Amino acid sequence: CRIERLADRILLADTSSNGSFVTPDGGKERRVLNASIVLTGKGLIFFGRESRGERRGGARYEVCT
Questions:
Q1: CA–CA separation, 39 and 50 (whole Å)
Q2: Distance (Å, rounded) from C-alpha 17 to C-alpha 34?
Q3: Which residue from 63, 31, 35 is spatially nearest to 47, judged by alpha carbons?
């Protein structure tokens, strides 16, 4: 995946065959596959696999405005 800082948002764009999995703090995990998602708040990103309720192995993100 690619994470881009644009003028008004942070964008995660995935073009892989396995996808990326984004879990916002307090939110539901979402698979991003051949698509883009705007990142907000804080959470975890897993590359190519679901988190399965784990935190280990994920990349923590925080979007500050």
A1: 17
A2: 8
A3: 31
Angle, alpha carbons 3-4-8 (nearest 5°): 130
Q: Which phi and psi (to 5°) does residue 58 adopt?
A: -100, 165
CB 10 within 8 A of CB 22: no
pLDDT in tens, 17-57: 999 999 999 999 999 999 999 999 999 999 999 998 888 89
DSSP H or E run through 21: strand 20-24
Determine if the pTM surpasses 0.90.
Answer: no
